[in-house]
UniProtKB/TrEMBL annotation:
Gene3D superfamilies: 3.30.70.100. SUPFAM superfamilies: Dimeric alpha+beta barrel. One of its GO terms (biological process) is mitophagy. Residues 13-111, 122-221 form the NIPSNAP domain. Belongs to the NipSnap family. One of its GO terms (cellular component) is mitochondrion. Signal peptide: none annotated. It holds the Pfam family NIPSNAP. InterPro entries: Dimeric_a/b-barrel (IPR011008), NIPSNAP (IPR012577), NipSnap_domain (IPR051557). This is NIPSNAP domain-containing protein.
Length: 223
């Protein structure tokens, strides 16, 4: 059940999802805002968000690594960073209920994008596709993504395909000016024949789908 080819270089992205104890979300965000610069001094943070809709008391952050040796070196350095361990890890760990991570690659036809301006919202959509990988569903999935891009109401930030974690999972990050702007665009897209046709073709390979509306944290490069 091959996951399909990845990009030519070794760059990958680690997606970390934390469930925060319901009564501790405000405290967790405060600790992040105060001390997370200690973590970003070690490797590149792509984005850090909290869930507003579709999940509660959840944060998602994405890290970029040159290769697996790079990640190993960073993790080793973090374990020996007394400031990071004492000022962030010690107070933050009791606030976290559950942690989950995945390793994913950008799909070959997607470059990591940036929003046209700050102040919008992010939609994180997770697609669980049928086993077989992009060789089975890749072209149909790409056509569905492009159909939504062509409507012009939303901005594509990135499309990630898992390598470690639940396989045949695709995470798509979109940016919109506001939740209402996103809602209006979705209504228009559902009446667009191009989108309808592309979705009908790709949904044949879909097992399940879930989405979250995310708000960027103060430390997030993607705002």
């Amino acid at each position: 059940l091959a996951t399909g080819p990845r990009q030519n270089n070794g760059i990958f992205y680690e997606i970390r999802t934390y469930d925060i104890k319901p009564s501790k979300m405000k405290e967790f965000i405060e600790v992040v805002n105060k001390y997370f610069h200690l973590r970003t001094g070690h490797s590149e943070l792509v984005g850090f968000w909290s869930a507003e809709l579709g999940a509660m008391n959840k944060v998602v952050h994405v890290w970029k690594y040159d290769n697996f040796a790079h990640r190993t070196a960073v993790r080793h350095a973090l374990a020996n960073d007394k400031d990071w361990q004492g000022k962030f890890i010690s107070p933050a760990l009791p606030l976290i209920e559950k942690q989950h991570n995945e390793v994913a690659y950008l799909v070959p036809w997607c470059q990591l994008g940036k929003p046209p301006k700050e102040g919008g919202v992010y939609e994180w959509v997770t697609f669980q596709m049928k086993p077989g990988g992009p060789v089975l569903w890749g072209e149909a999935f790409r056509a569905a993504i492009n159909a939504h891009i062509n409507t012009g109401y939303t901005k594509l930030i990135g499309v990630f395909h898992t390598e470690y974690g639940l396989l045949n999972t695709v995470h798509v990050i979109w940016w919109n000016e506001s939740p209402d702007h996103r809602a209006a665009g979705r209504h228009s897209a559902h009446e667009d024949a191009r989108v309808v046709a592309a979705v009908r073709d790709s949904v044949r390979f879909l097992e399940s789908q879930q989405n979250m509306l995310l708000l960027p944290l103060q430390c997030s490069p993607l705002k």
